Amino acid sequence: MNEDAFSFHLSDNALFYSASLKKGKPYIAKYPRDHESIFIVTSGSLLYERQGVRQIIRRGQVGYISRGSIDKSSAYGADEVSYIATKFNVCKNANFATLSFDVLCSDGCTANYEKLFALAHTTYISKPKGYLTVCNGLLLQIIGYLYAEKSDKGVARRISPAIELINERYSDAQLRVTELADACGMSVKNFRRVFFEEKGTNPYEYLQKFRVKKAETLLLNTSESVTDIALSCGFSDVYSFSHSFRKNSQVSPSGFRMIQI
């Protein structure tokens, strides 16, 4: 990670708040957002839509909305979704800048993010002496954690060849854990241990979850058949795809596509 990624500061004080969206009552931005936003889903799942692309943020996951977005947020698959969010702007070289995050910017370290967001929200609402400084500091800590997840250091560096291979070959049903271990120059046993230390799951489960996420995007944004999506995402057949999809998304692929917002 280039250290320049951290050479920014807040141009104004961060604002923290909690909110919820009920099924059938989405939030639709009428104008481009004049601020950055980072949020954590505290219950349910949130469907985020921008420029024709749809992405789901589930409980415990952290999402990012860049300045200038014209977007839509909805409750997905449940009657209501709740979240804690922060609004802020970053300033770099006297010009407004956005952060280098995807919409789904974290699905790990859930306990850390939940604790930081909850503390910032409570502090902002109760307004003790110096609360704005505290909240700004907590926001920078959250951003720091997010950048740390993007960094290529320590254990993350050791398994980065495997992650790159998954990104390149997730559509290959013949991709095996042995190949991921070989890419990292480790024995399979050691690779499994190091991978779990970094990702909190085993390599096979990570690969299947990665494939399911790719499939979710195709189900949401294309009219391709379930079978074609299964094969294009690296599943050997539609039956194994449906099993993995239900395990990770708690609904069948067809049901996922048909859920009405």
Number of domains: 2
- The CATH superfamily of the largest domain appears as Regulatory protein AraC
The level of helicity is: 40-55%
- Number of E-state strands: 12
- Average pLDDT, to the nearest integer? 87
Distance between the termini: 38 Å
Query: What is the overall shape?
Result: globular
The CATH topology assignment of the largest domain is: Jelly Rolls
Unreliable sequence segments: 1-6
CATH class assignment of the largest domain: Mainly Beta
Compute the gyration radius: what is it?
A: 20 Å
Structural features:
261 residues; alpha+beta; Jelly Rolls; Arc Repressor Mutant, subunit A; five-stranded antiparallel beta sheet; 12 strands; 44% helix; globular; disordered N terminus
What's the quick description here?
By secondary structure, this protein is of the alpha+beta class. 44% of the residues lie in helices and 23% in strands. The two termini are 38 Å apart.
Structure explained in plain terms:
The chain has 261 residues and is of the alpha+beta class. The protein folds into two domains: 3-150, Jelly Rolls; 154-258, Arc Repressor Mutant, subunit A (Orthogonal Bundle), CATH 1.10.10. The protein contains nine helices and twelve strands. A hairpin with a 2-residue loop joins strand 5 (45-50) and strand 6. Helix 1 (110-126) packs antiparallel against helix 2 and helix 4 (177-183) packs across helix 5. Mean pLDDT is 87; it is low at 1-6.
